[in-house]
Amino acid sequence: MVNAGGPVKTVDVGAESIFGREQYSAAAYLKDELRLDCDLPDGVGSANDPTTAKFRAVSEALERWAFRQCKLEEPVTYGFDYDPTTNGMGAYPGLFSKDARQSAEREAIERHVLILWWEGYLECHLLGDPFPGVRAIRIENPFSEHEVVLLWQFLNERFYTYGFGLAANVNEACWRAGVEMHRLSGVIGEHYQKYDNLDLDYINQAKHLFEKRTLFFSRPEGFVNLLKRVESHPEHVYCSKPVTLIDRKVSGPWDQYVTVWRVVFEQPSREFINDRADYFFW
């Protein structure tokens, strides 16, 4: 924490219900000079107990610190020239790199699978509803033994929200995706509280690409685009392992608190970072 010379200014922890399960959620904020110009927390985390939720939020906040600094100072070294997002980043306290690398690799696989599916390389299969009012698909994952799922929900009869997750089994993947969807619902819901209708002009004025995309797919027109992909079959063949462009520790002043790692895979195209609202990836 800042009062002990650390980079984290505050951590807020509270209890909430996520799909009927009582959870603790934490939001961590870095000290002012390390933050971006926004009101969102630098890191968030959820768990069955407040200590773990706090640990996850702080780890994510420190990961964001590493991302922001390295994207500006060493973009080529850590692959931010190719993928200028936090894709494939993982953080874990301690001197050993194993846990941070595993976390980074799992996220890189999850994002790679989602991109390949959206671009017509992988199959998907409908699942039974994991939560009331929530639909789900399982996306083919030829790269690891993990299950990858995508969830969506029409919330408050106003907008669609989504979540995706990777885990050792379908139930755990659905839970992780559900937590992510719960968070995204809150972010999207703030826009719909201010405006009755989010037209394309409003969406295209969003400051961040991923925000633009989540807002686009929150609308019925965006959801129709998603359904077309769900109902279609692969148009291309993808049978090789992903080409690894980056697989290394991300070094910096955060090393004394946490180990940060990044894994970057070569994607089938550059569409995932184009300034398009109608590309389903964030």
Helix content: 25-40%
SS strand fraction: 25-35%
How many helices? The count is 6
Lateral arrangement of strands in the main beta sheet = 5-6-7-8
Give the SSE order as H and E letters: EEEHEHEEEEHHHHEE
* Major pleated sheet: 4 strands, antiparallel
Structural shape = globular
Mean pLDDT across every amino acid position: 94
Helix-strand category: alpha+beta
What does it look like?
There is one protein chain. The chain is globular and about 50 Å long. The model has no long low-confidence stretch (mean pLDDT 94). It contains six helices and ten strands; from the N terminus they run βββαβαββββααααββ. By secondary structure, the protein is of the alpha+beta class. A hairpin with a 7-residue loop joins strand 6 and strand 7. Strands 5-6-7-8 form a four-stranded antiparallel beta sheet. It has a three-stranded antiparallel beta sheet with strand order 1-2-3.
